[in-house]
Amino acid sequence: MPSRSPNILAGPYLERAAHRRKDEAHVQAALADPRTLFVPVWQTRNSILRQGDLLVAHFVTGVQALATTSATDYVLLGEFRGQAVFAVGLSGDRPQLPDPAVDFQDLRMVAGALPAEEAGLLAYARAMIHWRETHRFCGRCGSPTEAVDGGHVLRCSNETCRTQQFPRIDPAVIVLVTDGERALLGRQAAWPPGRYSTIAGFVEPGESLEDAVVREVREETGVDVGVVDYHSSQPWPFPSSLMLGFTAYARSTDISRVDDELEDVRWWTRAEIAGGAVSLPITHSISFRLVEDWYDSGASRPLREEPGVRLWQLPRR
What we know:
InterPro entries: NAD-cap_RNA_hydrolase_NudC (IPR050241), NADH_PPase-like_N (IPR015375), NudC-like_C (IPR049734), Nudix_hydrolase (IPR020476), NUDIX_hydrolase-like_dom_sf (IPR015797), NUDIX_hydrolase_CS (IPR020084), NUDIX_hydrolase_dom (IPR000086), Znr_NADH_PPase (IPR015376). The protein has helices at residues 24-32, 62-66, 107-110, 116-133, 209-221, 270-274, 286-296; strands spanning 37-42, 45-51, 54-57, 60-61, 74-80, 83-90, 102-105, 145-148, 153-156, 164-165, 170-178, 182-187, 199-202, 225-236, 241-250, 264-269, 279-280, 310-311. By secondary structure, it is of the alpha+beta class.
């Protein structure tokens, strides 16, 4: 089987240089270096620069960033394009930006319009700042936490506790279920009409990924699946998920929703998908890639070349 290229938000987009995090002298020198790049995050939104029809990440220098917030809000991400790079969380009202071409946007919607390495970096920054903001107190004794190791460890400030917290992710399975000729897709009630996606859910304690796939499909659709094949994974920091993608093969096709998480579940043929009967997920999501790879495996023309296919609304690049 040919190797797959990384999903958007994944891949070797920077040198994490984890060994540098414990070197406090290096961290402080990097903070003071005017060449250092900072990735601002405000209320989970990333700073984006529009250059004509193109979108790119907006970075600020050390001097600009140090004037906006305290150093305790910085997280050393590593080295990007030969420069040290930090995530920096901004609090309070929307920051005043001197350049009208710069704005804070939802990365979930614009990631596919950014250069891939910049999208990955912004996702990493967003995830780290979210973790920092939601773990300001010790879960064991309730004391405030303090950042160490370049912002990658939050340590309890209580000398008798000193519990350490590390960045967390929430593993979730996402699966394209097929009976060979059709794909099983569902929709949530809050989505616009016609929007459907693959089946997904969080992995529970004591559960393997394969067991989670079988359970989630059965709970949300009533369909029983047999063979479960791993496809690929994608960081999805909205707010802190790691999406683990699978293809599963149905042993039954009758739909009977056990819970009310999905408003509707249907089987869709390739012809219906190509004809725009269903609106597919955004192209930079692993959900779309799962549908695309299944579709292309049995179609004479790739899904992206079908003129009638419908996608969730995306910003233009």
